[in-house]
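Q: Could you predict the 3D structure of Acetyltransferase?
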Amino acid sequence: MPDIIAETQRLILRTIDEYDAALQDGHLNTPTVMAHLGGVKELHEIEAKHAKSMALQAREGFSFLMLIEKASGELVGHAGIKRVDNPNAPNQGDHEIGWLVREDRWRRGYAHEAMIAVIEWAFGRVGAPHVVAITNPPNIGSWKLMEKLGMERREDLDFVDQEPLIQYSLTKAQWERAR
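A: Sure. Here are the predicted structure tokens for Acetyltransferase:
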């Protein structure tokens, strides 16, 4: 049974369970949603990522979560915390936050709402001293949300992995001042 990590006005953020790969494949794994995340994935790739998230949750007490819309009970996104694990990143091991939202729920503020809850979780129960978020320069929606959350651009953390990737960061002190 998945655990509820946080609730917002419109969302339940819960841990991933073994049945969620097919759910994610059906609702989130579309060419448009996955355009800036390496493209549509095979089901076995989603299953592997979910297994990694479940192991991280068991080991460290954080992971990526499923975003369930309270009004409908439907999966509308995926968001959470993981460790920076790209071998090309200069800050491996940092707490990385991220999200994706189902295309038919875009421009409703779900990503912003979910990420406020994730950042509170990161700086609260997880105890992260800072968080980072990674995207590619053309993903304007993502880096605009990073800026809206109070994150600052960190060119010193940029790296290349098949394409240029940029990072934003946010310290606990910056978050507390912004709140």
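Q: Anything worth pointing out?
A: Residues 43-60 form the longest helix (18 residues).
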